[in-house]
From TrEMBL:
Domain of life the protein comes from: Eukaryota
Family matches, as Gene3D superfamilies: Medium-chain alcohol dehydrogenases, catalytic domain (3.90.180.10), NAD(P)-binding Rossmann-like Domain (3.40.50.720)
Protein name stated in the entry: Enoyl reductase (ER) domain-containing protein
Key words of the record: Oxidoreductase
GO molecular function, one term: oxidoreductase activity, acting on the CH-CH group of donors, NAD or NADP as acceptor
Organism: Capsicum baccatum (Peruvian pepper)
């Protein structure tokens, strides 16, 4: 049982953040460190902490923001020389927390390492045993899935028959937004960065239309071609020139949900936004949001999305890397579009 590992000495691989960066992340901004002899001792009494074995780790674009020396964001920066932190699915080995016991599978913030001591357990949640893949709890049933759910229903305020544009549409969030919009009765167009991703959007995810933004010399014309009626809802994951073009093509009383700015996150001097006059003339609402604003809806989200998935009404694309040592390359690859679907690292088989 789990307690049989306590008291044993194991090797612990870790991904260490080296120093604050400018520009696009590189693999050399992180390093693999091996702690040769980690003694898996019981968690100290009164700490409220957990000793966990990490099973799956999530690669997410927001992690780029934590690699700069900037404290004015909703999450603090990573600490140079320390283990990188992110969302994960873990198995509890020992617990001083009454909410969790050895053997429980949990999801929440953990270290990019094989074994972690976790003291901040406020947003940890127990994963219920069912036939859903455990890795989905950092994707479809985790932060990205909930971002799509809260952003689409609460921020976009959809109406049946709306014309919806989703950028980075084959990514962790965009793929679910598009499918939820289709199920709601909307007309859905997605943008992506390769022909393969465009084909996936149309053939596997059921989008009405899709295009490769890298092949379009003029994004305004591309949107006029794909959504000639105009856009009611733009779910923005990228910012930059796609947001500029979407502004020109919004309908009166359109809604823009600002979810991510992946085109701008690695720029020291992000581009300004043009075409903001459109917000006035068309009375468009543009709102940024964080999934953590809507955590009261999380139980309903889990129930709804699990049910839709089990009924075969939604598909989820996952891009799995094997082994903790592959994590730096996986994170860096997000910023050049190397992933198709949700990027996950499998650290251990449970």
């Amino acid at each position: 049982m789990e307690n049989q590992v306590l008291g044993k000495t194991v090797e612990n691989k870790q991904i260490i953040f080296k120093s604050y960066i400018e520009g696009i992340p590189k693999e050399t901004d992180m390093e693999l460190k091996i702690v040769k002899e980690l003694n898996l001792e019981k968690v100290s009494k009164g700490s409220n902490g957990l000793l966990v074995k990490n099973l799956y780790l999530s690669c997410d674009p927001f992690m780029r923001g934590r690699m700069r020396d900037f404290t004015g964001s909703y999450l603090p920066p990573f600490v140079p020389g320390e283990v990188i932190e992110g969302f994960g699915v873990s198995k509890v080995l020992d617990s001083d927390n009454p909410d969790f016991k050895p053997g429980d599978i949990i999801s929440g913030f953990t270290g990019w390492e094989e074994y972690s001591l976790v003291y901040n357990t406020d947003q940890m949640r127990k994963v219920q045993a069912d036939d859903m893949p455990l890795s989905y709890h950092v994707g479809l049933l985790g932060m990205p899935g909930f971002t799509a759910y809260a952003g689409f229903y609460e921020v976009c305020k959809p109406k049946r028959g709306d014309y919806v544009l989703v950028s980075a549409a084959s990514g962790a969030v965009g793929q679910l937004v598009g499918q939820l919009a289709k199920l709601y009765g909307c007309y859905v167009v997605g943008s992506a960065g390769t022909k393969q991703k465009v084909d996936i959007l149309k053939d596997r995810l059921g989008f009405d239309g899709a295009f490769n933004y890298k092949e379009e010399a003029d994004l305004d014309k591309a949107l006029r071609r794909h959504v000639p009626e105009g856009i009611d809802i733009y779910f923005d994951n990228v910012g930059g020139s796609m947001l500029d073009a979407a502004l020109l093509n919004m309908k009166i009383h359109g809604r823009i949900a600002l979810c991510g700015m992946v085109s701008q996150q690695s720029l020291s001097n992000p581009q300004g936004i043009h075409n903001l006059l459109q917000l006035i003339t068309k009375r468009v609402k543009m709102q940024g949001f964080l999934q953590s604003d809507y955590l009261h809806l999380f139980p309903r989200f889990l129930e709804d999305i699990t049910s839709l998935y089990k009924q075969g009404k939604i598909t989820y694309l996952e891009d799995m890397n094997e082994g903790l040592e592959s994590a730096p390359a996986a994170l860096v690859g997000l910023f050049s579009g190397q992933n198709t679907g949700k990027k996950v690292i499998r650290v251990a088989h449970h």
